[in-house]
Amino acid sequence: MEYLNSSQELKFSHKLHGILLLLESENTNCSEVSRTYGNTPQALTGWVHKLNAGEGGNIEVLRDKLKPGRHPRLSKAQIQIIKYALEKSPKRAGMDSSNWDGKTLSAFLIKKYGIHLKIRMCQRWLQKLKQGNDGAFPPGE
Fold it and tell me: Taking Cα atoms as reference points, which of 25, 46, 42 lies closest to residue 34?
């Protein structure tokens, strides 16, 4: 089931296939298809209702809408600058500290960008950047 949720196209195909299985025979019901397919009967009926409510049976209504999510506070360019600054001493970055820690990074971000991140989040960024992973954190972190 995890594989089917790995891309938008697979999710769409999964929904469409579930509805087609339901329509295949008059003897098939939502409970049977959902058991076979690994979804709840409510999910399957929701897909059917969505399709019936769509314009002229347009199957595109089964596609998931894009969910915007939270925007990252730091841009990729800012992350690269921070990564570069962390390779040097905090004093070279204009900070009054001998080593980088969450408190120092938090003060650096306020001074350089006006961005307020809590000390714990800065500790996470330090750990992440030291591991060489400069991608964004998942939402909520």
Answer: 42
Residue 15 lies in a domain: yes
**Residue 94 placed within a domain:** yes
pLDDT in tens, the chain (141 residues): 566 666 888 888 888 888 888 888 888 888 888 888 888 999 989 988 888 887 777 888 888 887 777 777 788 888 888 898 899 999 998 999 999 999 999 999 999 889 899 999 999 999 988 776 555 544 333
Q: Is the pTM of this model over 0.85?
A: no
Which range marks the domain in which residue 95 is found?
76-130
Q: Is the dihedral of CA 69, 71, 77, 78 positive or negative?
A: negative
Is residue 17 domain-shared with residue 52, that is, in the same domain? yes
